[in-house]
Design brief:
The chain is α/β, with parallel strands linked by helices. The protein has 2 domains: about 160 residues, P-loop containing nucleotide triphosphate hydrolases (Rossmann fold), CATH 3.40.50.300; about 250 residues, no CATH class. The chain contains 15 helices and 15 strands.
Length: about 425
């Protein structure tokens, strides 16, 4: 039998238990082979594991495919071993497990799913990094846990985020349609020509925004799936990471409901506080936790002499399923903005929303790209240029959905990554 050290106590794992882990590893790898397509992050994780000393932590919203991704990586790497930490005997040390796998099986890579179930896992990873020749990649159902581990593990860890699909990835996974990535330069310069080739995918825009952005909905396209993802993120992740009380959880749900029902321009710390009866400090705390849990994005304003109130948007597909009692037509505008912001941030670009000195409405967003400032106004096919009034930046663009000759079709930004 093998002996594992955890929390200052020796724990013995029977040979039969070790053999069971080997069996589960084989089953997980076999299942991974049934998934023919891989998320874009697959190769990035592989590259880090093969070319650097760093471990890899994979963060992201529940339902984005982290478990499948980890199993695919394990299946594609020689001398790798996959384990879900919630199947380990209580008190098992990850360090001792990695050491035993290396000595007995020659394992060079350890893929740990649901790592939060392992005791003192941050310290165990530090020991493994410092003393073993085994590289580790891991996931957790709690995005907050993985992001928080970055500071604890310092130089030892690279944290990557697996976001919901891009529009391009969604088309690949749903229909098997393979399309190239478009650079922002190409979209801005040749949008009319590109749209003639891609306009047929306009009909998929609504499905993407209401459910298709989340990989979990490919097999189960039900509102209950998304509501379940949100509730687990609030009830489990935010409760443990944010040290929230049961009263806080009630208030978080109320704040999330208000955000989902509000338009993009009407959602800030102040408006959440005013409409839910909580303090502005609490509104800021809850919004920060929603962001850490990958449920929301906090967009700061740009401009001189403006109040630093953010604009709070939700991850695509969340709003449509949480805005109870609100007609979908009233959500179209903010869902267009969430589509745009999701893809701009996913492409690694920086943006702010525009706000005038006295709160007057300007164009929607400013994007910083290759030392350029780009102004974007987002709307329906009838959107005009009137809201560019007072904007001194030279490069100004109208984005329309559905696409029209008046501007750049919004769906093209879904091909940035």
């Amino acid at each position: 039998m093998f002996i594992f050290f955890a929390r200052q106590k020796w724990h013995m794992i029977q040979d039969s238990t070790f053999e069971q882990l080997i069996s589960l590893d084989g089953l997980a790898k076999d299942e991974a082979k049934g998934y023919k397509r891989k998320r874009f992050l697959y190769q990035q994780v592989r590259d880090i594991l093969s070319s650097s000393r760093q471990f890899v932590g994979i963060a992201g919203l529940r339902g984005t495919g982290k478990t499948v991704l980890l199993r695919q990586i394990a299946s594609g790497l020689d001398n790798s071993f996959y384990v879900s930490a919630d199947t380990l005997p209580v008190g098992t040390s990850l360090f001792e497990l990695a050491e035993a796998l290396h000595k007995r099986l020659g394992s060079k890579y350890l893929m740990v799913d649901e790592i939060h179930a392992a005791p003192d896992w941050q310290s165990e990873l530090k020991r493994a990094y410092d003393f073993l020749k085994v590289k580790i990649a891991f996931t957790s159902s709690s995005s907050i846990d993985v992001v928080g581990s970055k500071s604890d593990l310092s130089r030892r860890l690279s944290v990557l985020t697996l976001p919901p699909f891009s529009f391009r990835e969604y088309l690949l996974f749903k229909n098997g349609t393979e399309l190239p990535v478009l650079s922002l330069d190409k979209i801005l310069a040749n949008h009319a020509e590109i749209y003639r080739e891609l306009f047929g995918f306009e009909s998929e825009f609504r499905d993407f925004c209401t459910q298709g952005a989340l990989p979990a909905c490919l097999e189960s396209p039900l509102p209950s799936v998304i509501k379940g993802i949100v509730e687990k993120a609030v009830q489990r992740d935010m409760l443990s990471a944010g040290k929230l009380s049961q009263e806080d959880l009630v208030n978080v749900r109320q704040a999330l409901l208000f955000i989902a029902r509000a338009g993009a321009d009407g959602c800030s710390y102040s408006s959440i506080s005013k409409n839910t009866g909580i303090t502005k400090y609490k509104a800021q705390q809850y919004a920060s936790l929603l962001s850490s849990a990958s449920l929301a994005k906090i967009i700061l304003p740009y401009g001189a002499n403006v109040m630093p109130e953010p604009k709070i948007l939700l991850t695509p597909a969340i709003r449509a399923n949480m805005a109870e009692g609100i007609d979908e037509d009233r959500l179209k505008g903010v869902m267009r903005e969430e589509f745009f912001v999701h893809h701009i941030i996913g492409a690694g670009l920086e943006l702010n929303y525009l706000k005038g000195a006295r709160g007057q409405k300007l164009a929607d967003y400013i994007v910083f790209y290759k030392a350029r400032k780009l102004i974007f106004e987002i709307g329906g096919a009838g959107k005009g240029a009137s809201q560019f009034k007072g904007v001194s930046v030279k490069e100004k663009f109208i984005l329309s959905q559905p696409g029209s000759a008046r501007g750049i079709p919004l769906i093209l930004f879904g091909f940035l990554w």
